[in-house]
Write a structure and sequence with these properties.
79% helix; 9 helices
Length: 247
């Protein structure tokens, strides 16, 4: 318990330092601190959650692995700047896509898909239309700046956005289906992480303002807080008590 509190304290310290350096204009240090947050949370999950879900663990490893790569790759000699960009951009985003897919699988495994398709038809139609519209808007924002005509970057961003919104949709359907504390935490976590991604798009492609990066990182931290909390809860079939805390 003491060691877990130390790691939690370290996460909060890194977050506070990130905010200080971000608003002081030291973006290089701020980004490195930002990329340390998810690996530290992954360590907390790996060492202090007794009953782990394999897909959630894979989500944590891929997500934190992408962030760690963002730090490490800066110190690896590259022949030219484009090599650095290709590895960081493509491999990093693919790891994020895999992370979200593992989380989608984790949530979907607790769903009765036949029941969902039969009883949430209107929800599915509305979510599909909404997701198509959001992806369309995001691609319009990204198209003038992403890749400068390189199709691979454009389609990678397209897949990224589709998977990200799929995660949010599955989490929302899971909440409708389960209607318990665990599913609520999963939905809030997914909602925060999607909002974080949208704010990050605004930061990278519209206006590089410190406040946007701070909001994005804060939303990511809140998302991982709810993801961590749900990992200690278990779905149970009980009308009086919809969840139980795992000791």
């Amino acid at each position: 318990m003491y060691k877990s509190k130390v790691l939690v304290g370290l996460v909060l310290l890194v977050y506070a330092l990130f905010a200080v350096f971000e608003f002081n204009g030291n973006e290089s240090v701020a980004f490195n601190l930002d990329y340390l947050i998810s690996p530290l949370i992954a360590l907390i999950y790996m060492f202090f959650v007794k009953r782990k879900n394999i897909f959630f663990l894979l989500f944590m490893l891929c997500y934190s692995g992408s962030d760690l790569m963002g730090i490490i790759i800066k110190y690896i000699p590259q022949k030219n700047e484009s090599d650095f960009f290709d590895i960081d951009y493509f491999v990093g985003n693919i790891l994020f896509i895999l992370a979200y897919l593992f989380l989608v699988i984790k949530i979907s495994k607790s769903l009765n898909l036949l029941y969902v398709f039969k009883n949430f038809k209107i929800h599915l139609i509305v979510l599909t239309i909404l997701n198509i519209y959001i992806v369309y808007v995001l691609q319009i924002i990204l198209k003038p700046t992403v890749g400068e005509g390189i199709e691979s970057e454009y389609y990678l961003e397209l897949v990224y956005n589709i998977v990200m919104l799929l995660l949010l949709s599955v989490a929302l359907l899971n909440y409708f289906y389960r209607d318990n504390k665990k599913s609520l935490y999963l939905f809030i976590g997914s909602l925060c992480i999607v909002f974080s991604e949208v704010v990050q798009v605004a930061y990278f492609y519209i206006a590089e303002r410190s406040l946007l990066n701070f909001i994005s990182t804060t939303l990511t931290l809140v998302a991982f807080y709810f993801f961590y909390q749900q990992s200690k809860l278990l779905n149970v079939l009980n009308e009086e008590e919809n969840y139980m805390v795992m000791e």
